[in-house]
Queue: 2 jobs
Job 1
Amino acid sequence: MKKEDITGVMVQYYVLCKRELWFYIKQINMNYNNDDISIGKFLHETSYKREKKEIRLDNMVFDFIKRGEELVIFEIKKSSKLTIGAKYQLYFYLYNLKLIQTNIKGILVYPKERKKEEIFLTNEIIDEMEEIIKGILEVSNLNRPPIAKNQPYCKRCSFYELCMV
Amino acid sequence: MKNPLYITSHGILSRKDNTLYFINETDKKQIPIHAISEINCFGKVSLKSGASTFLMKEGIVVNFFNKYGFYEGSLYPKIKLNSGLVVVRQSEHYLDVKKRQYIAKEFVEGIKHNILKTMKYYSKKGKNLDEYIENIEKENIDGDIAQMMSCEGRIWNNFYQSFNVILRKFPFNKREIRPPIDEINSLLSFGNSLLYTTVLSELYQTYLHPSVSFLHEPSERRFSLSLDFADIFKPIIVDRTIFKLVNNNMLSKKHFTYDVGCLLNDKGKQIFISEYQKKLETTIMHQTLNKKVSYKYLIRLEGYKLIKHFLKDKQYESFKMWW
Ligand code: SF4
């Protein structure tokens, strides 16, 4: 895998669980009949109908953007619990876009909770993003999946049975 | 939970919009497609082309059995779970003799263990099975695939011989498949066909390729990995179902037809299927998952364990009854 192949989803998995990331990169996916996914899709289709949906740029998919004096990228999320993955995905997009434009911010939107959260790229975050990108490439080169650690996140993960059996 | 649908009458499956119907002489029934895991056709069932594309799209395996209740073939949807890595590794474990033997040995160890557990259960209930148990315990599973196969054969033989002690009626001498010559042979054939298709549907939910097997040869006409897996679960699912049906007098001569061989009739099949289904849904507490799982789900978990073995994640150990 090359640096250009890294996607926002991979960044999400990297911060949540490196094992899940490995499965994802190897195209092993257990989500095929998971309700969470369909809820996400449904929200996507029904909320913010007025805005332009899904903008694709290289390996990034934005839920929508707004252009004014600054560029704003929006990311819609189901719930503000467990935002860490979503946050890093957005950081990753901002990081990628910083070469094109400096005046830029991200907003996480939780339509169900009527909440928003603003996200900016700082120098620390830039360093962290570089580490993450290196880390993702390392995971993709692993010959076997990283060991399963039973963490709270596992309970809602679709790999739970595969990992724990 | 999704359940298999068993069709025992003749008829046609057809689709109208997004609904599936089963139509026969007397009736037109709607089939709740999202509630079924697979369709097993025991009657003569034809599929309209709309129905088959619909079922394939929904990922539902349709199994066909002949009038004797034996598995004939399946309409197997395009594999929806596909990982190049898993297929390559699975094949590697077949091609490498040592790796193949490891898995085959684990399978036979599982069969041996589960048969012994079953026999000891009946032995505790006062059946004298010592001789057979000893014979099986003596078996040392080793060598090449052919040797392990014959070892497996001897284990089954001893187990089958013990049926005459376990069962309250229907004498049983030896396993005869084509055609089954007596009641027990026909029950075994029918039950094994059912289990084969159950395993096939569970394998469909994993990334494993159903044709690449380890104990059986992949060149067999059937999805041979399904045969490998089924053997491990036969003692606890099929054979235990038969013991219950026979010893509790739920089946008698009137549930069979006797002509060239001996076969279950429709009523007999229904009784068998309903008891078999109950067995699949029986749950036990799982040791590492920390929750209750059904016998049927144990089959899926077995698939996961094999995948983990291929991915060098955790070495495979076959399912061995722990209760
Ligand atoms: S179950 Fe836990 S360890 Fe396994 S992939 Fe999911 S989060 Fe990672």
Job 2
Amino acid sequence: MDVQRKLAILADAAKYDASCASSGTEKRDSRDGKGLGSTAPGMGICHSYAPDGRCISLLKVLLTNACAYDCLYCVNRASSNVPRARFTVDEVVQLTLDFYRRNYIEGLFLSSGIIRSADYTMEQIVEVARRLREEHHFRGYIHLKTIPEADDALIAKAGRYADRLSINIEVPEETSLAQLAPEKNVRAIRRTMGRLRLKLDEATEAKKAPTRTKPPRFAPAGQSTQMIVGADAATDQTILDTSANLYGSYNLKRVYYSAFSPIPDSSRALPLQAPPLVREHRLYQADWLMRFYGFEAGEIIDPAAGMLSLEIDPKLAWALRHRERFPLDVNRASREELLRIPGFGRKAVDRIIDTRRNSAIRSSDLAKLHIPRNKALPFIVLPDHRPPAYQLDGARLAERFRPKAQQLGFGF
Amino acid sequence: MHRIRLDSDTDFDGWRKAARELVLADVAPADITWSVTGDEPELFDAAGLSPDAGAFAETAAPFTHFTQSPSPAQTFNVPARFVELAQLAILHRDPQRFAYLYQLLWRLRANPELMQVATDPDVARLSAMAKAVRRDEHKMHAFVRFREIGREPKSRYVAWFEPEHHIVELAAPFFARRFADMEWSILTPDVCAHWDGHRVAITPGVTKAMAPSEDRLEQTWLTYYASIFNPARLKTKAMQAEMPKKYWRNLPEAALIKPLIEHAERKAHAMVAAEATAPRKPQRQEQPMTRAKPKADTLAHLREEAKDCRACDLWKDATQTVFGEGPQHATVMLVGEQPGDKEDLAGKPFVGPAGQMLDRALAEAGVDRSKTYVTNAVKHFKFVPRGKIRLHQKPNTPEIKACRQWYERELAAVQPLLVVAMGATAAQSVLGKVTPINANRGHLIDRDDGPQVLVTVHPSYLLRLPDAEAKEREYARFVDDLKIVAAHLRKADVA
Ligand code: SF4
């Protein structure tokens, strides 16, 4: 089979993994002229976008889509009838370098079906990264999928070459995983995450300590995971609780939510209808509220519903349930309070705090701060604006934010 | 009217020099027109800045050249933020940018705080321009597509790009850092950047015909682009927001967008409509959560069995069961409260800060830890997540009771002569009832139904003590308690 045919199969097999970004690593470049590539600590670069709206920043492929496991939600499961292929280590290395030189990509995201054993599979994955780094002096971004229960030495090696390691939690609850992926074990996945965290902590500690020897390098962009949404009956509350636990326990950089997607040749045990993509979007918004806006996992969702509203964003929904905290005076409120106002982003809050020292914020300034007026005005007080009391108390307020009666254009 | 002509579209130094002298000479913004060498000056009158700027243009003075550098007395300070903003905004393609910048500079003299005011119209306008420049630079980093001329290792890489603003020189160092070992050129209609392995050279702009039109890898890249796209998730608006159409004509993969979208709906429908396939081989049976009890409890058996314990809810949020560790027939069994953060991650008891405290105290008391069996009353870490940390929670009585089976079976397997219960939770589990520590510590408690017991504090109690003096005193007491263990062991050895 030629490389192009393999690429078609093995990229197709990898497209369901959402945990693909190229940000947050250390700074490197190839200015010394010996190697190829660079990374910057800030944002990764999306080199293209696919019509599914997703960023293409890495060559995202599987080493092989043959897999011994039979996870029902997965297109590569042992019982699936998809065509199979397997890259050689060299083929992936060459493809990465060739794509990189043309500026198509930032680096490589390599995953694999589990073949022979966890150790054998992990060894192959690590070997690709080793060759890129040691033989080709590649300094671009490398993200490797960690195989649960692979040998500790292999994991340490993976962390030496990779920028990021990830291991997918798959579904939020152990019971679902037992049904959907009988060979997978949440405990093993969590144990591996725990091992990664210890190694990440060690590397951070070593960096802080004043020694002359270089600290052991271990995945400077940290670890991440993916959770599939909608393949089981878990509520959004369960999902957020799991995320909060994962962030706290394993210091993950990101939890990715991937709406279960219909796959060719799907199993009878699964819903054929995908969950609405907007559910995934709302989960990302809720996740942001936890990580950057000071919200706790337990306060984002209406306890009576257990699910995020599909119609309005989680912060607005929270504000509507907590009207007693509003209106807030934009020129006086604390940073924490400002962050809870619907429509107020982090950057806008920073600018407000800078600006109001010198000049009061007025309603005509909202546009300059990129704050949507309609969303924010009912909740704020400005020198030239105060929402009428009946508005904030009234039942019509929530109505005003609901999308006009129309079919949502999501799903199909 | 002052007419200032700058050397190039990106001549920040020229602008700065001129602007400084104009401000010092008290020349109002409306009295200046800015232009760039080679451009038509009429295009750049200060129209719109001031209602009567046009009138002055008629009687404009010849172009002013500022060649003499100002004396130190003729300088003044501007906020660093302004300089950063100006260096970016000057790269914007808007012909009025020099005038806008001058106007802000002019106002900054009277109000040095102005840069702080994000809502000021001049600050907002220039910030938006700087942002557009940054975005265009970022898009250039992303969307430049090199095409190979010749074959490695002798190949050259050449790209054609059409930037929206004057960003080629701004963006070039990124490519030099990234592709240091290859020779490359980025050709644009404005200027071109070339890298020879040592430095970036800038040459005048060229036409698209000068750039290569194909590359041997392009088809492979298109294959990748088509394969990584999931037809069940069409979101074309999101795509266009990030990859605006103006960039499409120089992106080889953009030719695929239309056909991919057209086929997407059909493909997705087909997937859903297709019959689900029956598995090729029988599904494996789910493993039972708790296996049948083996007859003889060896520690190895117990450890395996405890991995799947669900006797209380604590297993749910924790990483793993942290079981006891040590020789199968240790003389002394040390029992703590529950694993902490580190223990939970590592799967071993007493490896975190409390464990280090324990190690130190044991060594000081003369007890060899490797000869003891170390475990916890409760085998799972109980905590609440708070952002990036986990706050330790005390296990409650039902949890202690649920977990006691493991302690009892460990005890039966190890058969120690002495059990040391550290802390109230351990004492409750070991002695089977709530037992205050202070009233009972410092002596061996004889029991008919098992080994002797010694109660003492938990090492993490020592870690939590706020003042150094109390810490030292309590630590010494703890070591004293452990010395009882040492003495006991010596006696047992002699016997
Ligand atoms: S804490 Fe003890 S009883 Fe509760 S699940 Fe864990 S091992 Fe079982």
